[in-house]
Amino acid sequence: MEFPQPLWNQRALLKGSTLVVCDLHIGYERELEKKGIYITTRTPQMVSKIKEMLVQHKVDCLIINGDLKHNIPKASWQEYDEIPRAIDEWLKAVDEIHLVVGNHDGGIENYLPMDVEVHDSRGYRRDGVGYFHGHARPRDEVLDSDILVVAHSHPSVTLVDNLGQRNKLACWVRIKYTLDEIEREAVVMPNFNPLLGGISINEDGYLGPFFRDITVREENVYLLDGTLLGGVSSKADSRRG
């Protein structure tokens, strides 16, 4: 099976004619606003970048692997306004859009255009690949996929130089793992929205129940530009939910 390929420096995954992104967290600026941080919305830039990739790679399907929106339990005015417009723009370039529900996507069906096919938090399987956000355990059909694509952790790696200066960088992770004595592979995706923080996998491990259930046998970490760091995480289990 063709392995899904990261698009280096783009925070997106390509599998055949399908593009995968995750953790856009549209509306995050409203949370920052409550903390006294005022910035303009970054949604137009994200929408434009995704559409550019859809056209460039002649994609006919877009999968959003969770957390399209940010604010919970209620959506902000920004999400009500920007999400339908984003979907309309992407549908100019693709035939279908799928959303796998993430932990921030509660109630999104109330204003999500009907053109989007919504899959619950237990995931979605397409062309032999299982997609799930990562905050909930995937259904058996998804787990039985030879390759899994996981989001939620916002993976990053903390690098420390000789002077003790710490630098936290977003990354991709490709792992081989065993579950019920069966070995399979998975990709952990970085968050598409660059404003968000990340979990330092070499200090704090990964998020979600999936990583509590599996045994990681091999781990390869790649920076966004494709630089291979090898295996770096200090632990494979989850620190948080």
SSE layout and pairing:
Layout: E1 5-7, E2 12-15, E3 18-21, H1 28-34, H2 43-56, E4 61-64, H3 77-90, E5 96-100, E6 116-119, E7 124-126, E8 129-132, H4 140-143, E9 147-150, E10 155-160, E11 166-179, E12 182-188, E13 199-200, H5 201-204, H6 210-213, E14 215-223, E15 228-230
Parallel strand pairs: 3-4, 4-5, 5-6, 8-9, 9-12, 10-13
Antiparallel strand pairs: 1-2, 2-3, 7-8, 10-11, 11-12, 11-14, 14-15
Structure description:
The chain has 241 residues and is an alpha/beta fold. The chain has a single domain (5-230), classed as 4-Layer Sandwich (Purple Acid Phosphatase, chain A, domain 2). The chain is 20% helix and 32% strand. The strands form two sheets. Strands 7, 8, 9, 10, 11, 12, 13, 14 and 15 form a nine-stranded mixed beta sheet that branches. The longest helix is centred in the first third of the chain and has 14 residues, at 43-56. The chain is globular and about 45 Å long. The protein starts with a strand and ends in an 11-residue tail after the last strand.
